[in-house]
Design brief:
Strand order of the largest sheet: 4-5-3-7
Number of domains: 2
CATH topology of the largest domain: Alpha-Beta Plaits
Mean pLDDT: 80
Oligomer: single chain
Radius of gyration: 19 Å
CATH architecture of the largest domain: 2-Layer Sandwich
Order of helices and strands: HEEEHEEEHEEHEEEHEH
Strand content: 15-25%
Low-confidence stretches: 189-196, 207-228
Number of helices: 6
Largest sheet: 4 strands, antiparallel
Shape: elongated
Distance between the termini: 42 Å
Length: about 230
């Protein structure tokens, strides 16, 4: 197959890698944790579904040896119409390039989902909760990267960087998932209260953030369609 140009939308930089482009796996020898979305039903309308209450319940369960679990903090959202609750707790450190590693993560993540259900049923209003569904696959946050002329860095986000060769705008906070501590770290622009988390993406930067942002916006549109 021949063409003047190709767009690598593999998510794992496969096209660039097999074509011989300079790539790296993760950053500094590690990748962000992958997470499996879980959806819980049967939760009372008046139940506290805040992230804080969920975290507290998980932390109380840890000394009892309840397992397997990974994270104790997550984005928690109550869905319209159904009233179901979506959480992003079940997480794994795996190599998305390796089908065996990915399969092990899928098995562990779905086991974790049942464990989190057991823990959350102890909260008031969650007594009759059930596992409505788990995501069709893990959300992989990081894999290979192209070694571009310039790399988007944390300080570019926190400083709300502007460039003379801007080709796109990044507007979503960057979130790192520590594979060792199983924790999240979110970075916002220093001027986020004024102009959101906007920062310029240079034409010399790798486009992974731009692609991720587009994928996220597509997911949000799909979700709005499904539940409106």
């Amino acid at each position: 197959m021949g063409a003047k140009g190709f767009v690598d939308a593999s998510g794992d930089c496969d096209l660039a890698f097999f074509a011989g482009a300079s790539t790296r796996y993760g950053n500094h020898g590690a990748v962000n944790l992958g997470t499996l979305g879980t959806r819980f039903g049967g939760i009372a309308p008046e139940a506290d579904v805040s992230a804080g209450s969920v975290t507290e319940a998980i932390r109380k369960a840890k000394p009892r040896g309840v397992h397997p679990i990974s994270k104790d903090r997550s984005l928690i959202a109550r869905l319209p119409l159904s009233g179901d609750v979506v959480a992003y707790l079940a997480s794994e450190d795996y190599d998305p390039r390796d089908v065996r590693s990915l399969s092990r993560a899928e098995i562990s993540g779905r086991t974790q989902a049942w464990t989190y259900l057991e823990i959350l049923r102890e909260l008031p209003g969650w007594e009759h909760a059930y596992l409505a569904s788990t995501g069709p696959e893990f959300g992989t946050r990081e894999s290979r990267h192209i070694n571009s002329v310039e790399q988007l860095a944390w300080q570019h986000v926190t400083e709300g960087r502007r460039t003379g060769d801007c080709v796109a705008l990044g507007v979503i906070s960057l979130c790192a998932k520590d594979s060792i501590a199983a924790s999240s770290q979110v970075r916002n622009s220093a001027e986020s209260s004024v102009r959101g988390n906007r920062r310029d993406i240079s034409g010399y930067c790798e486009w992974r953030e731009l692609c991720w942002t587009a994928a996220w916006q597509t997911k949000m549109r799909e979700r709005s369609y499904l539940y409106r």
